[in-house]
Amino acid sequence: MIYILDTADIEEIRYCNEFYPVSGVTTNPTIISREHEDFWKIVKEIRDIIGPDKMFHVQTTQKKAEDIVEEAKLLKERIGGEFYVKIPICEEGLKATMMLKNWGIGVTMTAIFTPAQALIAAKAGASFVAPYVNRLDNIIADGCEVVAEITKQLNLYNLDCRVLAASFKTAEQVHKCASAGCHSVTVTSGILKSLISNPMTDVAVATFEKDWETVYGDKTILEF
């Protein structure tokens, strides 16, 4: 399982990159616009924090294939490192994806809601497909089951494409996707933190500390 952080908040990225095994960052126009900062300043800071070897997925703002390609080339040039351009699923997006393979630029096809969309995106050459789990749940479509179907199809046809499940509201949704064999997820810092949170863990740790202090006081192993 690959964990990717879904935010453009610089401090959140800095914190999670230090304490969690994240493999990169995803953004989209909505996430970027929340920061009310210069676009290039934001993406440069993100790249500086995560370094060149972690994935950075940035969404295009263009609508025509040729313009998507030009924007992707500019983004790749200026951001550098392990880069993927996010392209919403559509005819122009599929055309751009096939064109970008010749430029060696990875594509994450986003706004996926059906296995059929994911399969044709993978055939076009997308490196990742991003189904929206919670948005599917909101229309009673079972987002985790859709992720499971997409994963099964990609594996069945041995396609060089991975599922990057997105749009999560609960840790349970992430758990179900992982159980279905989903290759990767992109989550907020809140969801990431909730994945390691459990009240029974808190009780266990408190017991360890109390029992230690009963015998050794406030000394640590380093002090013996």
Structural topology:
Layout lengths: L1 E5 L3 H10 L2 E5 L2 H5 L5 H12 L4 E5 L5 H15 L3 E6 L2 H11 L4 E7 L2 H10 L3 E4 L1 H6 L4 H14 L5 E4 L5 H9 L4 E4 L1 H6 L4 H18 L8
Helix pairs in contact: 1-3, 4-5, 6-8, 8-9
Write structural notes for this entry.
By secondary structure, the chain is an alpha/beta fold. Helices cover 52% and strands 18% of the residues. It is built from 11 helices and 8 strands. The chain has an 8-stranded parallel barrel, surrounded by 7 helices. Helix 1 runs parallel beside helix 3, helix 6 (115-124) runs parallel beside helix 8 and helix 8 packs parallel to helix 9. The chain is globular, with a radius of gyration of 20 Å. 37% of the residues are buried.
Q: What's the total helix number?
A: 11
Structural class call reads alpha/beta
Strand content: 15-25%
Average pLDDT, all residues? 97
Q: Segments where pLDDT lies below 50 for 5+ residues?
A: none
Number of strand segments: 8
Side-by-side strand order of the widest sheet = 1-2-3-4-5-6-7-8
Task: Please give the radius of gyration in angstroms.
Answer: 20 Å
> How does the overall form come out from the CA principal axes?
globular
Sheet of most strands: 8 strands, parallel, barrel
Order of helices and strands: EHEHHEHEHEHEHHEHEHH
Defining traits:
11 helices; 8 strands; 224 residues; alpha/beta
Short description:
By secondary structure, the chain is α/β, with parallel strands linked by helices.
